[in-house]
Design goal:
alpha/beta; UDP-n-acetylglucosamine1-carboxyvinyl-transferase, Chain; five-stranded mixed sheet; 430 residues; 13 helices
Amino acid sequence: MKKVAFDKPVLQGEITVPGDKSISHRAVMLGSIAKGTTSISGFLDGEDCLRTIDIFKQLGVSIERDGTNVTVESPGMHGWQQPSSPLYAGNSGTTARLILGILAASRVTSVLTGDEYLSKRPMKRVSLPLRSMGASITGEADSNLLPLTITGGPLTAIDYDMPIASAQVKSAILFAGLTADGETSVSEQTVSRDHTERMLAQFGVDIQKEGNKVRVKGGSDLHGTPVRVPGDISSAAFFMAAAAMVEGSSVTFKDVGLNPTRTGILDVLKSMGAKIDILEKTDGPGEPYGTVAISHDGLQATEISGDLIPRLIDELPVIALLATQAQGVTVIKDAAELRVKETDRITAVTTELKKLGAQIEETVDGMIIHGPTALSGGTLSSYGDHRIGMMAGIAALVASEPITIEDPSCINISYPTFFNDLEKLAFPIK
């Protein structure tokens, strides 16, 4: 339990959020596939990313960590050793789904497991296309639930049309395609985050993009390379929303990732009336990043749907909170993917915000939020989901009474210093 309370706060100052979780995972994965040395700076030392490191250590990859600097020394995928115990992904869906594509293409046999929450999340969206490439993946519910047994072996390229927008599924197929016989392609109806494509190019892979289709040829050699991980915009989004929500607030975010497939939060904040200035921007190699200033300037309701959803799927819990303080009715739709995250985030968000007095309705694929509404205090469940836990912490900035968060430790998955940063930015009004 953690009690969070503020007396008429205003957010002021500058913050550098921890490294991007998605990019940190991929840097360790590709560094382990590649031959040679990969040096990673800005690595997120949260629990999810540490699970990825632990798994590749079990496969015989040398990985040394010094704070946010990580050095990966690998003989390449075909030099990995047989793991002596199951590979534990903890709560990390990114670890589990992406590594399925990697293990399927390897020469080892392994058992992939997770915690009680991850063991309930669907894996068939990854295992089915991989099995169509010839992968041997067996487990519960027709290979839909962990634990799964993966026997690495030769694969055949496929042309895969994505039924849903999922960077995890796309990445797993592309990773498997690195060793498959032929050219593997993945087509998306809506473009999902493209960190894998950018990083594959950094590691020397000839990856081709044609509109919403990505192609990779089997037999690609990867070579170790330096990788810089920018600040995670999904983590920054909680304080971005807070700065837009609390009157008198103004916060500057240093070195935050500005990949256009991830900046939907900035588009939503602009549409709701927040003042946003991009003060600096650096493009590549790899990921664009920069300095962003956000301040309160009134809030208006908006609609969030369609192609925008994949660009801010992880930010929707805090956007729902933000909408409770906006003038009008905010509609979030086309977001059914929220139901298969660390928890069912549609139900979790509506249930917890209602406890505070929010006027919010759950729909099949989203939420309808009426505002502005004064929020009270109370005890909120995190559901073991870091995004729900952080939403509860930000809610304390506008709640009339303290908020107590159950299982706040889950926030360590992506943002170990969240509460320290919250207290540092939230000054009382003089």
